[in-house]
Amino acid sequence: MTLRLPGKRGLVAAGAVAVLTLTACSGGGRDQSDADSSGGGGNAPGSSGYTIAFVTHETPGDTFWDKVRAGAEQAAKDTGVTLKYSNDPDAAKQAQLIQSAVDAKVNGIATTLVTPDALAGAVKSATGAGIPVVGLNAGLDQYHKLGALMYFGSDESLAGTSIGKRIAGEGAKHPLCVIHQTGSVALEARCAGVKSAVPGTENLQVNGADDSAVTTTLQAKLAQDKSIDYIVTLGAPIALDAINAKQQASSSAKLVTFDLNQEMAKRIKDGQVEFAIDQQPYAQGYMAVTSLYLYLKNGNDLGGGGPVLTGPSFVDKNNIDKILPFTEKNTR
Amino acid sequence: VRRSLRLLARPEMGALAAAVVIFVFFLLVAPSFRSAASFFTVLYQSSTIGIVAVGVGLLMIGGEFDLSAGVITISAGLVNSMFCWYLGVNMWVGALLSLAFCLFIGFLNGWLVMRTGIPSFLITLGTFFVLQGANLGVTKLVTGSVSSRDVSAIDGFGSLQKVFASNFTVGSATVWVTVLWWFLFVALAAWTLQRTRIGNWIYAVGGSAPSARAVGVPVVRTKIGLFMTVSFLGWFVGMHLLYRFNTLQAGNGVGNEFLYIIAAVVGGTLLTGGYGNAIGVAIGAFIFGMTSLGIVYAGWDPNWFRAFLGVMLLLAVLVNTYVKRLSTSPAAFPPEAPSSVLASSSPPGSLSSASASPEKEGGRD
Lengths: 332, 365
What we know:
The complex is a heterodimer. Helices cover 46% and strands 16% of the residues of chain A. Chain A is built from twelve helices and twelve strands. In chain A, strands 2-1-3-4-5-11 form a six-stranded parallel β-sheet, sandwiched between helices. Chain A has a six-stranded mixed β-sheet with strand order 7-6-8-9-10-12, sandwiched between helices. In chain A, strand 8, helix 9 and strand 9 (254-258) form a beta-alpha-beta unit. In chain A, helix 2 runs parallel beside helix 11 (281-298), helix 3 (91-103) packs parallel to helix 4 (116-128) and helix 8 (211-224) packs across helix 9. By secondary structure, chain B is mostly helical. Chain B is built from 16 helices and two strands. In chain B, helix 4 (71-87) packs across helix 11, helix 8 crosses helix 9 (197-207) and helix 13 (278-297) runs antiparallel to helix 14 (305-328). The longest helix of chain B has 27 residues, at 219-245. Chain B is globular, with a radius of gyration of 21 Å. Chain B starts with a helix and ends in a 10-residue tail after the last helix. At the A-B interface, helix 1, strand 7, helix 8, helix 9 and helix 10 of A face helix 3, helix 4, helix 6, helix 11 and helix 13 of B.
């Protein structure tokens, strides 16, 4: 009995076939059939002659800021404004970014006001130089005092309260509010808002930079306290980890979340997430730039002297079909 | 008596004592900690830190640091995910490409450190920032967002998931395959360190690179190999993250490099190199996993989480050094390392002396 081994040529052929099979197009990847859907008219950037500086406290790598920026860029394109985007999570450095926009004599400044005290000086020097300032995303209570003309954003504690009221209406007794960033005022405010509507709310700190740590921590918490009936996550990626943790801990707690992304929209559609609350970041970026354009061009002042609220807007089974396509384009 | 003291002189003994103390402590204070399911959740958490920590431990014994070890896990997953998503090719192709990419980064780290003589702390800090920036920039370019896309429907996902991110149940407990992989890597590393010539080389280059070179140890090859081991294990964890969580956030992974170093140090590895072992590092990772979840199992105020963690880790290190001093003070025993003659011929190698190597050695280039 002799076993015939394939010759060298046979081996090469077999290898080539293997490579071909592996590299052959397989489904599930990028949809390569659709042509470039962007563009379609609009003004060239800079055609209106205005330059607007857009300063945020974005920490790089957050899907949320992606959308704020996409909105701002679309607005700049639509109105023919030249947009200068810059960001720094550090308050002092953000103030410097605003100051350098003033020094560059831009026509308008849109900025987040997450640390009002640290930014007050820079905003003052902008208004002193006659540059209109519009606040967005954070700084609802302080924007007026600082001298900003308008404000586009959501109220964190109001958003928390509306989630709290809604789940309380559905019978929540002991929700778990998951904070994924240590010491964030905005995240604490969201959980405080939930707690104001459901007194039994408990907070949990997790390391948002590590999905497996988020999952195991949640899993441990669900095992430790079986009375948890709702999980409130404060960002879409954390909610996806919570789905994993729930399965592992075989918990029947219901899941609701702040913010939206494409994956999340699918999970809402298939019922794994009850609802998401959206502060519409795209609209924040878009409106901040557009409002400055209107102010410069036409002297308009939006909001009637008060803030313009972009949220909270609920996304659930009832409206997900309409919203899902927008999340795929990364605009909601 | 001599025998027991000699046993205590092993690097992992202090960590083992600390682990037992912490384990008993949580058994007492946290009722939900007392179940097989919880124990295996802790083991899973430990394995996600422990797999890379084994490599980082070996590297630290070899006298070097790698700060890019945390962020490379995400780079590995992103390379695989985005390559396959964009071109629509089988996930295995992307996984192998990602492996080649990570090994290259590891080689580059090692080569730059050995070639320039700049401390590895600085070189890998550089790679850390480059990878962090590239993760974000490239992901944004390819997917239009800062997270990778859903790749679960692409061919090969299922089979790779079995390798890197499957689990099975034993009774009420879920055992993740990473735990088994972790044990395997620890056993391999322990065997290499204690029983092979490469192990001797690792202790020797960490103890003192010049004297190691003088007796004919291939210093450059050994150190580059260690950097590549770390990036290989980083790739492995990256694969686990991708095949368990499907979509990856491009900004994640930052900060984990310190957890690996902490696990190695708690496990008895010297920051200056030349001393430590793989079992110790594994126990270090286990202490971390146990502490971070034990606090939750105990149901303590989550705002104190980090503080509790810090106290636990400090205690672990204190117990560790106390046991080590106890064992070495009455009569100085030579360390377990077979290279003790080499290591003691000059003071413990500092980072600068270990990496400042202007002369090239044979067998490479």
